[in-house]
UniProtKB/TrEMBL annotation:
It comes from Almyronema epifaneia S1. Belongs to the endonuclease V family. It catalyses: Endonucleolytic cleavage at apurinic or apyrimidinic sites to products with a 5'-phosphate. It is found in: Cytoplasm. Residues 231-240 have a biased composition (Polar residues). Its cofactor is Mg(2+). Residues 217-240 are annotated as: Disordered. PANTHER family: ENDONUCLEASE V (PTHR28511). This is Endonuclease V. The lineage of its organism: Bacteria, Bacillati, Cyanobacteriota, Cyanophyceae, Nodosilineales.
DNA sequence: GCGACAG
DNA sequence: ATCTTGTCGC
């Protein structure tokens, strides 16, 4: 799929916050998705002392959850990690990885929050809006919001609130295990998002999509190691 | 002013 | 996120 970073992409935290304020109204939190036959997991990792961002995307069949395609992209890291501004650090590399995909996924599961964010534009919401695909935020910890106690059994969940609104759900994806923070990204409701996350999580705490993307973006991988990009065009030909 | 704070 | 070995519990 062909994608590219918008021309007005922010360079400073101030500009990033301003863009979030501008885009928040464009997020759709009601269901607008077709039949889901493929689900993609997206994750990011860092190498070279954090100077290089590695984005990975894994497309799985649904509901079989078998790997269909995966892509990895390396991009120089250009934005620091600032709580609330995660998308500006990770989205650039993610868009490159997604653009390399032959299979256009029907749904995106992202590491991080969807609208469970101070300005309702976490990375999952922002990414979904940019690529115009349904997306769900699947975070391993809380950014903002409060919630009641959560029963220990798999499948139980309680709403995540911020002021007077429900911004997401705290979901037990596995019995007696730390919960997941689920929220709508774009073009999907919270109820539907929870249902998909559970269907993508048959055995472990994290969805199969995320587990695949995690492994591909992680530093200690076993399989084929795609060489980090050479930025100085000094790619020498060892064979003359 | 103080504490919280996705990855 | 990343640095890193073994270890406790279902």
């Amino acid at each position: 799929m062909k994608l590219s970073l918008p021309p007005d992409w922010p360079t400073t935290p101030q500009a990033a916050i301003a863009l979030q304020q501008k885009l928040r109204s464009q997020i759709e939190t009601s269901d607008r998705l077709g039949s889901v036959h493929t689900v993609a997991g997206v994750d990011v990792g860092f190498t070279e002392a954090g100077t290089v961002t590695r984005a990975a995307v894994a497309v799985l069949s649904f509901p079989a959850l078998q790997l269909v395609e995966s892509q990895i992209a390396y991009q120089p890291t250009t934005f620091p990690y600032i709580p609330g501004l995660l998308s500006f650090r990770e989205v650039p590399a993610i868009l490159v990885a997604l653009s390399q995909l032959q299979t256009q996924p029907d749904l995106l599961l992202c590491d991080g929050q969807g609208i469970a964010h101070p300005r309702r534009l976490g990375i999952a919401a922002h990414l979904g809006l940019l690529v115009d695909l349904p997306s769900i935020g699947v975070a391993k910890s809380r950014l903002t919001g409060t919630h009641a106690e959560l029963p220990p059994e798999k499948g139980s969940w309680v709403p995540l609130h911020d002021r007077n609104e429900t911004i997401g759900a705290v979901l037990r994806s596995r019995t007696n295990t730390q919960p997941l923070y689920i929220s709508s990204g774009h073009r999907i409701s919270l109820e539907t998002a929870i249902a998909y996350v559970l269907q993508c999580t048959p055995k472990y705490r994290l969805p199969e999509t995320t587990r695949w993307a995690d492994k591909l973006a992680s530093n200690r991988r076993s399989g084929p190691q795609s060489p980090p990009p050479c930025h100085n065009n000094q790619q020498m030909n060892l064979f003359g």
